[in-house]
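Crash report, auto-generated. Payload:
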Amino acid sequence: MTRKGRRLVLISAALGVLGIAAGLVLFALNDTIVFFRAPSEIAAERTAPGTRLRLGGLVKDGSVVRQDNAHVRFVVTDGGADIAVAYAGILPDLFREGQGVIAEGVMEGDGSFRADTVLAKHDEKYMPKEVADALKKQGVWKEGEATQ
Amino acid sequence: MNPEIGQYALVLALALAILQTVLPIWGARVGDAALMRTGPALAIGFFGFVALSFAVLTAAYVQSDFSVLNVVENSHSLKPMLYKITGVWGNHEGSMLLWVLVLAIFGALVAVFGSNLPASLKANVLGVQGSIGVAFLLFILLTSNPFTRVVPPPAEGQDLNPILQDIGLAIHPPLLYLGYVGFSVTFAFAVAALLDGRIDAAWARWVRPWALAAWAFLTVGIAMGSYWAYYELGWGGWWFWDPVENASLMPWFAGTALIHSAVVMEKRDALKVWTILLAILAFSLSLLGTFLVRSGVLTSVHAFATDPSRGVFILCILIFFIGGSLALYAFRAPMLRQGGIFAPISREGALVLNNLLLTAAAAAVLIGTLFPLALEAWNGAKITVGPPYFNLTVGALMLPVVFAMPFGPLLAWKRGDLAGAAQRLMLAFGAGIVIAAICLYAQGGGPALAPLGMGLAAFIVLGAVVDIAERAGIGRVPAASAIARLKGLPRAAWGAAIAHAGVGICLFGIIAETSWNAERITGVKLGESFTVGGYELTLARVEPRNGPNYRDLAGIFTIRRGGVEIGTVESSKRVFLARNMPTTEAGIRTFWFSQLYVSLGDELPGGGIGVRAYWKPLVTLIWLGSVVMALGGVLSLSDRRLRVGAPKPAKKPKVVPTPAPVAAE
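Recovered output after restart:
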């Protein structure tokens, strides 16, 4: 094979890999991204049941109900609307009433939310950015305010 | 010691770094040997002052000097000594100082061990290192000063985040930084070569040890971070595709590509322009990682509370170094002479394939990590790109890499014989099929994907054995001479085979853990039992305890298998007093390479306690395999051809010459 031919093979291999990678990335991005929503956004757009999303807000005071089989129910609020959440599993250590939380899961037909992952932050000083933004929009929380 | 001494030392280090940036590079420009010789002395002085500053901050932590704001915010007089020391870098300011300290260490090492480098190359390398030092010292002094005082000093500190009060903090960040910042050396070599406008195979020989060292540190650093998250966060995951994990994975992919392409450049004088680009990319991705972690633009377990001015500052550093080096590259790369042609089926060809796929994987991770940021900036939509995306893209791109891995070393340079390589791998391939069949049987039918993965992992490990056996001529030459050949194989050959075997070992762990783990979430009362993965766990006792700076509620479970008691496992809920912050201490029992993982939840209304228990088959192989990979890197590093101080590579070691893997041509 000539030098030119070999270079051609190399370049086409590179383009091939690049093409496959780009295809994969586009396909995967299309299929797997999850949107973040605050309770008032869900209430406003009437999110369809079965939609997978990340729900963020504050755990409403007095709303946490623990059941014997380690199932938990609580309410996430952003001041504008409330969403009831059901979760089976162990809550993170920093999960507390009145604190910021992000739950990932699926909308149910009755407008409640079934979470399979619940995230609270690992530092009590820190508010998840998405949650802070959503709360600011509702005027519940302001920059620099203590989150406890 | 007076904290101001630390600050003065930093300012002096900054002054030296500025000189180190200007003088040697200027000397190399005008060909002034005396100016070029200032580089090493300045680099060592820079290291000295940064080390002094770091020592002063450490002393402030050890003595619990609460007149220093950083100590107040992150330490406590009752904290165990180990965590007082590790607390130095368990916060934003201190971790940046550690970053610069590691940079200074590498700069000093280049100054000391670089005696065989051409004067102008060495001067340029040290100059580029100096400029990185200037940027990060300015960042520390202007936005993140760890020596800020508090007046009046409080009586007690606020303690370190309990999550960080762990031996993991002593291991993971320093190793990771040695990896991240280690790539600053290869970056400096690349930029120096571009400044010089000259590059040859010798350049690759000088760069390879640094790339290997950085890569080995990064590999272990990532693995240790993964293990730490696994046992500390209490939910049993070992990889979350967290943006910050991705930030460490991207330079790892680029670095892995770099250590492979540098081989081609050294041996065959080919892929020069590409290798330079990889050296630039590896460090650029490290810088990007630093930016993502330290700016707070991403929500992540690693984000400390930050203020936006820091993000903008690091962004400027990022733009300057990445933009500057890429511009220089675009300008100078076309002038570099290309050499060494090869057929598509050859060792070079295999390494090119490896490089293409690894960089594609790095790009896929980059896109997945930055896409949410870009989308939010564009239309305000907040999205997450989660594990499904990364598993799909990285998985699909890595599959051909690992499958081709055993073939690569068996192909000859220039023109290889794929059929011959396949023939020699028949046995390993057959063994892989057998392993897959056994796994399929043990699994009791079902989807064949996981058993096939186990077969692939076996194929990779055995392929590495075949590689060594072929080089030694086992089966083709008498046993005695095969053993002599084995002993005489260059360490780099052993290193490569061991690192490749490490990938296979790691793959065993990943596949077994993700496919066959068992999870059980339940509530138990005292004396009650539940089973997970064939083990029966009984809550035997609940004990309250007190630690130095925490209170502990421990649940002790007895473990039974087939009715026979085989031990206990203990998990606890810990409340750290200074911050009133709870953590979960998972209980882990290792059986061979598998682990039983138990973590305690909250108390339940009926009087029981929530428990989350996992059976994780072969999970430890994930980290053991990574350590084996890094060991391969270190072994390769100790090869005499690559020894940093070695004057000339011309003298071959006096051992039986190793035949290049003979392709039946």
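Post-recovery validation: The domain at 1-165 of chain B is CATH 1.20.120 (Four Helix Bundle (Hemerythrin (Met), subunit A)).
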